[in-house]
């Protein structure tokens, strides 16, 4: 137990260290990308960017402020952020996929604050950068193969990618590792791939993987899964290819014994998984 706490303390330290890069928060769901659109907030926290600053944040990374249409296109494939941000032409709003009482006034769609007359107001930013798209994304297809950025070339340093898999309600996601080669170290602190059995990278931690041993298959409990890939400032490796396929959930009439019959499949455990 103590070892476990210690491990999480280490993880936390590491997360903190990863928190900011170039004045932009880099350690959470805030970096979620969909169809080239992603959310950014200031180094100093939520709602700190004027229009000019928001524009500069996106341009610094090679993109620009997303248009309303781009934000809506991303929303349609699952981009959901509960924070208002600047869009192109001084519009402000945020994308809601899943209605909740504390966000979006219980509605889905773009919550639109309209074109702001006062560009000194402070909000977050929604950037659009299709060239950054290969690092992460949202997948809703029934099967897909995704790759580390640049694959089959080695991945680069200082990457942070999120993949969100959202399949039909009532289906499960079966992850299969086809190729896997990530800088190895004893606790996977340098570069790693993390798998979460949930909508975000906060809940449902399944495991953290590095090295060149092919991880076992993983099957989700629900219809969503999140994968997060972080690399540090030195030493890269070959990267990975991961396939997922959807499976229908075992029907309620079965007594559950049938669900674990697939040889090598590992239900929710990783190299550093918690049970
Ligand atoms: C514009 O917004 C800023 C920040 O909210 C505020 O300080 C300023 O007074 C506003 N300017 C006008 C003209 O309303
Ligand atoms: C297991 O599944 C098979 C069909 O896939 C079914 O015929 C059988 O009754 C199931 N066994 C249990 C214990 O649920
Ligand atoms: Ca590395």
UniProtKB/TrEMBL annotation:
Disulfide bonds join 58-127, 82-103. SUPFAM superfamilies: C-type lectin-like, Spermadhesin, CUB domain. Gene3D superfamilies: Mannose-Binding Protein A, subunit A (3.10.100.10), Spermadhesin, CUB domain (2.60.120.290). GO terms for molecular function: calcium ion binding; carboxylesterase activity; fibronectin binding; hyaluronic acid binding. One of its GO terms (biological process) is negative regulation of BMP signaling pathway. It is found in: Cytoplasmic vesicle, Secretory vesicle. Its main location: cytoplasm. Keywords: Cell adhesion, Cytoplasmic vesicle, Disulfide bond, Hydrolase, Signal. InterPro entries: C-type_lectin-like/link_sf, CTDL_fold, CUB_dom, Link_dom, Sperma_CUB_dom_sf, Spermadhesin-Link_domain. Residues 1-17 form the signal peptide. It holds the Pfam family CUB. Residues 135-247 form the CUB domain. GO terms for cellular component: extracellular space; transport vesicle. Residues 36-129 form the Link domain. Interacts (via Link domain) with inter-alpha-inhibitor (I-alpha-I) component bikunin. Interacts with ITIH2/HC2; this interaction is required for transesterification of the HC to hyaluronan. Interacts (via Link and CUB domains) with ITIH1. Chondroitin sulfate may be required for the stability of the complex. Interacts (via Link domain) with various C-X-C and C-C chemokines including PF4, CXCL8, CXCL11, CXCL12, CCL2, CCL7, CCL19, CCL21, and CCL27; this interaction interferes with chemokine binding to glycosaminoglycans. This is Tumor necrosis factor-inducible gene 6 protein. It comes from Struthio camelus australis.
């Amino acid at each position: 137990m103590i070892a476990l706490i210690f491990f999480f303390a280490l993880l936390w330290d590491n997360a903190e260290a990863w928190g900011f890069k170039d004045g932009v928060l880099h350690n959470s769901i805030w970096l979620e990308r969909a169809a080239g659109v992603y959310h950014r907030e200031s180094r100093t926290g939520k709602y700190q960017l004027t229009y000019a600053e928001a524009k500069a944040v996106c341009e610094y990374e090679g993109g620009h402020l997303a248009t309303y249409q781009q934000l809506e296109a991303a929303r349609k494939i699952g981009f959901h952020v509960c924070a208002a941000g600047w869009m192109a032409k001084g519009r402000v709003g945020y994308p809601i996929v899943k209605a909740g009482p504390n966000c979006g006034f219980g509605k889905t769609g773009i919550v639109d604050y309209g074109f702001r007359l006062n560009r000194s107001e402070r909000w977050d930013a929604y950037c659009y950068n299709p060239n950054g798209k290969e690092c992460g994304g949202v997948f809703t297809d029934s099967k897909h193969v995704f790759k580390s950025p640049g694959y089959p070339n080695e991945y680069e340093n200082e990457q942070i990618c999120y993949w969100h898999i959202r399949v039909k309600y009532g289906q499960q996601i079966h992850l299969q590792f086809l190729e896997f080669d990530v800088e190895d170290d004893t606790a996977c602190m340098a570069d790693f791939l993390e798998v979460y059995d949930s909508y975000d990278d906060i809940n449902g931690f399944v495991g953290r993987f590095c090295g060149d041993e092919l991880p076992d298959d993983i099957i989700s409990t629900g219809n969503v899964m999140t994968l997060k890939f972080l690399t540090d400032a030195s030493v890269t490796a070959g990267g990975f290819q991961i396939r997922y396929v959807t499976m229908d959930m075992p029907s309620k009439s079965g007594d559950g014994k049938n669900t674990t019959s697939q040889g090598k499949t590992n239900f929710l455990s990783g190299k550093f998984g918690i049970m």
